[in-house]
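Lecture notes, part 5. Sequence design as translation. It can be helpful to think of inverse folding as translation between two languages: the language of shapes and the language of residues. The source text, in structure tokens, appears below.
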């Protein structure tokens, strides 16, 4: 090969290599923009605890995603649901960190078990926001409701529904939430604050946030106390209240007061029908919006003092900036002024043919 030909071949090879390197660089940039491991990633993770509780995927997820998109049009939200498995949630968090997610919003399935995963994420420069449930570990912020207040509202609603039957001899069954969820302890604390000394809490167990478990516990309470001796039931959330309501019906127990919480559609319908006396409405949109605002602010290294205006202490002893929203008790008397007014549900959603007559009596038409 002569000198001229060698120069042509070498030149062509150099151009080819340069184009190849440029193409590789372009591919890397694309990966970063899609939430890869690059430092300029604008990816936010959302980890929710289960898909049994209706609110999470129906309300929290879409509200959060919409608010993030409003605040940061080029931000990407990556979502995963733990399906009530704390080990799965730990793996989901690890996967998001590996992908280069910069801020993770997590509603912990188990607030203590997630601690090591949060620590590992923070060690890699990821910021974590605890959502709805106060996770242990070095989280940057927490948004939820005043959960002790939620429990107080539940307890007071039970007393109000009992009326003159609320005496120190009145036997009340108390089915609490999952002990692994710090919210459950706060609901329980608030409920006891309202109920202690005013009624006899004759049976108290955890329902693990499961309607089937709550139904079993209710059956055990009936066996232990006697159907005619139960004046009312505290259920820590609406899902469990549904299982309990079925057990009460099966035992031919009259429409005794039964609490709940979360303002699920089925619970609102039971309230209209008279098989549940109250729930607690925690407006999902303000909570999800605040979580999105915190996540974007942390992503952009902004001060969050205006968003998180109080401080709480987690189970691991960490001081956490927090935003605590105000819950509202819902009974048949204020359905129109709460969940309907806020467009959580329409009257048509609530008043299906099965509930049409009860809705008319409740003034929902």
């Amino acid at each position: 090969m002569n000198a001229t030909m060698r120069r042509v071949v070498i030149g062509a090879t150099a151009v080819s290599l340069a184009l190849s390197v440029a193409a590789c660089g372009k591919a890397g940039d694309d990966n970063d923009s899609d939430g890869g491991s690059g430092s300029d990633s604008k990816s936010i993770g959302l980890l929710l605890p289960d898909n049994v509780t209706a609110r999470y995927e129906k309300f929290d997820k879409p509200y959060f995603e919409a608010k993030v998109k409003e605040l940061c049009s080029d931000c990407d939200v990556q979502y995963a649901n733990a399906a009530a498995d704390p080990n799965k949630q730990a793996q989901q968090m690890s996967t998001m960190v590996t992908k280069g997610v910069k801020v993770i919003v997590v509603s912990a399935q188990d607030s203590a078990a997630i601690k090591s995963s949060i620590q590992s994420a923070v060690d890699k420069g990821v910021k974590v926001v605890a959502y709805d449930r106060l996770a242990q570990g070095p989280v940057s912020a927490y948004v939820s409701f005043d959960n002790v207040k939620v429990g107080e509202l539940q307890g007071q609603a039970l007393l109000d529904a009992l009326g003159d039957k609320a005496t120190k001899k009145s036997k009340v069954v108390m089915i609490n939430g999952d002990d692994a969820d710090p919210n459950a302890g706060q609901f329980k604390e608030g409920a006891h604050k309202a109920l202690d000394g005013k009624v006899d809490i004759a049976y108290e167990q955890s329902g693990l946030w499961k309607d089937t478990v709550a139904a079993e516990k209710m059956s055990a309470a009936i066996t232990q106390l006697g159907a005619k001796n139960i004046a009312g039931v505290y259920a820590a959330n609406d899902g469990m209240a549904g299982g309990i309501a079925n057990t009460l019906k099966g035992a031919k127990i009259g429409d005794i007061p039964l609490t709940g919480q979360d303002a699920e559609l089925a619970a609102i319908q039971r309230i209209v029908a008279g098989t549940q006396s109250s729930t607690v409405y925690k407006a999902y949109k303000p909570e999800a919006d605040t979580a999105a605002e915190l996540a974007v602010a942390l992503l952009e290294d902004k001060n969050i003092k205006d968003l998180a205006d109080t401080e709480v202490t987690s189970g691991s002893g960490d001081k956490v900036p927090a935003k605590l929203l105000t819950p509202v008790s819902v009974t048949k008397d204020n359905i129109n002024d709460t969940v309907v007014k806020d467009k959580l549900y329409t009257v048509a959603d609530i008043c299906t043919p099965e509930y049409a007559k009860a809705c008319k009596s409740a003034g929902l038409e």
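The translated text above is only one of many valid answers, since several sequences can fold into similar shapes. The longest helix spans residues 3-33.
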